[in-house]
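Input:
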Amino acid sequence: MLAVQVLINALVLGCLYACIAIGFSLVWGVLNVINLIHGSFIVLGAYLAWGAYQWAHVSPWYALLIAAPLFFAFGYLLQRLLLNRVISAPVLVTLTLTFGLDLILNNAMIYYFKADYRKLTLSPPTGSVSLFDVVVPVDRLIATAAALALTGLLYLLLRRSKVGRAIVAVRLDRDAAVLMGVDVKSIYAIAFGLGAALAGCAGVLMALIFPISPLTSSAYLGKAFVVCVLGGLGSVSGALAGGVLLALVEGIGSVYLGPAHATTLSFVLLIIFLVVRPQGLVGRKGFE
Amino acid sequence: MTRAHLALLVLIAVVASLPLFGGAYALRVGTMACMYAIFALSWNVVGGFAGYPSFATAAFFGLGAYATGILLSKGVSLSVALAGTLMASFLLAAALGAVLLRLRGHYFAIASLSLVEVFRELVNNATDLTGGGMGLNIPLASGSGILADATFFFYAMWGLLVLTALVVIAVSVSKLGFGLNCIRQNETAANMVGLNATLYKSIAFGLSACFVGSAGGIYAAWVHYIDPSDVFDILYSVKPIVMALVGGLGSPLGVVCGAFLYLGLEEVVWRNYIQIHSGVLGVLIIILLLFLPHGLISLRWAMFWRKVKHV
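Output:
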C-alpha cells in the first residue's frame, strides 16, 4: 500500500510541479531567458489568493480569474519596458537583469508582508478522501485538477490559436518567423506575459496547500529549474513528465533516505540529466 | 605585463596602507574589500577569460569556509588549514569542471547554481562533522586583542588578494589565458586547432574556485562562527558577476575597481536603507545593465565632452 500511496502522492505533486514549471519553461524556450523572477511571481500569486480570501472572502477559484489578467499585464509590461532592451545580449546579462528584478520584487514582499509564514485556511475545511489505505486531501486533488486544466489550456492555446502558433514558430525558428510576418517583439512580450500569468495562477493553487512566505520563492524557482531540465525546454508534455519524475524521485527518496535528502537527490538528478541528456525526457523541438 | 596590470598591483598595494588610517571599521571594510576583489578576480578567470557564466562562487566559498573551519576545530594551524583548503578546492573544482563545463550557456549557469544547493544540503545533513543547521563554532586563531585580530585577518585577506592578482595576471599573459580567450571566442574552432579545451577549462574552473575557497577559510576564522545559510548565500555567487559587469568583463583591473566600487555602494546602501537594501541593490543592477552594459571601463570622458558641446 505504501508504494501506491507514494505513487498517488507523486502524481498529485507532479502535476503541481508541472504547473509551477510550465510558465518558466515557456519563457526559457521562447525568449531564451532564464526568468529568475518566476519564483517571486508564484509567491505573489499566493499572496493574492490569501489576501483575496482573507479580506474579501473571494474563493481561490475566482482569485485565479483575477490573477491571470493581472499577472499577464505585469509580465507584458516588464518584457516591453525592461527585458526587451537586453534581449539580444549574452546569457549573463539577461540572467542578471531578471535577478535584479527578483531582488526588488522579493524585497518588496518581505517589506510589506514580513518574512512570517501565512496559511490560507478554507472554512469549512475540505477534508480528505480515502480509498483502502490511500489517503489524499481534497484540496490537493482540486488544486491538481486545476493545475492540469491550466496546463491543458496552455496546450490548446499553443496548438489551436493564431497567437499560440506564432509563439511556437518563434521558438522553432526566429528568423523564419520574422520572414513570415510574425511580430517577434510582441510575441516575446505575450510569451513573457503568459509565463507570468501561469506563475501567478500556480501561486494561487500553491496557497491552497503550502504555507506562504517570500522566503519560499527560491524553492519554487529551484523546482521549476529541475522540472524544466528533466522534461525538456518549452514543452507542455515535457513539463508534466518532468514534474511527475521529480515528485516520484523526491517521494521515493524521502521514504528510503529520509526527507532531509530529497533536495540533494533532485539536484543530483538534475546534474545527471544536464550532463547525459540536456534536451530532457521529451526532445527539444516545438511544444507538442 | 601591461600598464593595466601594473595599475592593478599599485591599487592593491595602496589598499595595504588602510590600517594606517583607522580603527576597526576601516579594517572590517578593508577585509571585505579584499574578499570581494578575490571573488571578482577569481570569477573573471572562468567568466571573463573563458566566457562561461559561472554561479559557483558561493559553493566554493562555503566549502572553503567549512573545510578550514573543521580543520581548525580539529587543531590544525590556520596556515596549514588554508593551504589544504586551497589545494582541495582546486582539485575538487577541476574535477567538477571537467564534467560541468561540457555544458554551455544557460545550462552551465544552472548546473553551477545547483552546486551551491547541493553543497548546502550536504553540509546541512552531515551534522556530526559540520553541526548541520546549528552552525559551526570555530576556535580563535590568534586571540591577541580585538584590533590586533582585525589587523591580522585584514593582512591575511590582503595577502591572499595579492596572490590571486599575481596568479590571474600570470594566467592572462600565459598560454593558458590565450587558450581561454580562444575558447570564449569560438570553442569548436579552438578544439579543432588542437587546443585541449577540456583541460584548459578545468584548470580555469579550479583556479576560479581555489582562491575563493581560501577566502572562505579566512572568513570563517575571522568571524568564528559559520552556518550553511550564511556561507552558502546565493548572493555570493551573484555579487562577483555584478562587480565584473560594473568594472568591465575580462579586465583584471576593471573587475577589482568594480569590486571596490560595489563594496562602497553596498556600505552606503546598507547603512541608510537597512530594510530595503536588496531591493536597492536590484535597482542598481538594472540601471547598470540598461545604461552601462559594458561596465565603467566603457565610459570615456570624451563622450561627456561631446555631449556637453552638443547641448
